[in-house]
Amino acid sequence: MVITKAQDLEQFREVSIRPAFMDRSGAAAERSVWDVVAQLQDIWSETFQANAVVWRMWANHIMRGLDRSTWDRDILEPPPSQIAILLKPADLPAERQLAGLSRSSDLALQVVNGAIEDNKRTEGKLEGAW
């Protein structure tokens, strides 16, 4: 694309640089922020876990310059240090499986302990009846 006049430059900025959705002040609109958050989560959710506010902070960090042409590149980059300290590593499949096994064994233990208590009560009633 050749930019020969001011109108061409403005059109280029609209298409390539400025956020697709802007509020009245010229800042990126909420919809643009959520679009960047969704892209970050698509790419990084298998690596990191975080609350929604942390994902928004990361998106705002990427969008701070309002130059949409750099957002895709920045989304692929690891988080800056001030955001990285707020992220937790994502659960690995083995960790999820162990957590599930732990919950299952806890439930089994509760069932067994309940059965033992029921047996003791029944035993006490039978002894009292004789």
Characteristic key phrases:
130 residues; mainly alpha; 2 domains; 6 helices
* Whole-number mean pLDDT: 81
Distance between the termini: 100 Å
Going across the major beta sheet, what is the strand order?
1-2
Helix content: 55-70%
Q: Could you give the order of the helices and strands?
A: HHEHHHEH
Count of separate structural domains: 2
Report on the biggest sheet. 2 strands, antiparallel
Low-confidence stretches: none
Overview of this protein structure:
With 130 residues, this protein is mostly helical. The chain has two domains: 1-90, no CATH class; 93-130. The chain has helices at residues 6-17, 30-44, 52-63, 71-76, 81-84, 93-129, and strands at 48-49, 88-89. The chain is rod-shaped. The model has no long low-confidence stretch (mean pLDDT 81).
Q: What would a concise description of this structure say?
A:
This protein is mainly α. It is built from 6 helices and 2 strands, in the order ααβαααβα.
Secondary-structure blueprint:
Blueprint: H1 6-17, H2 30-44, E1 48-49, H3 52-63, H4 71-76, H5 81-84, E2 88-89, H6 93-129
Antiparallel strand pairs: 1-2
Helix pairs in contact: 2-3
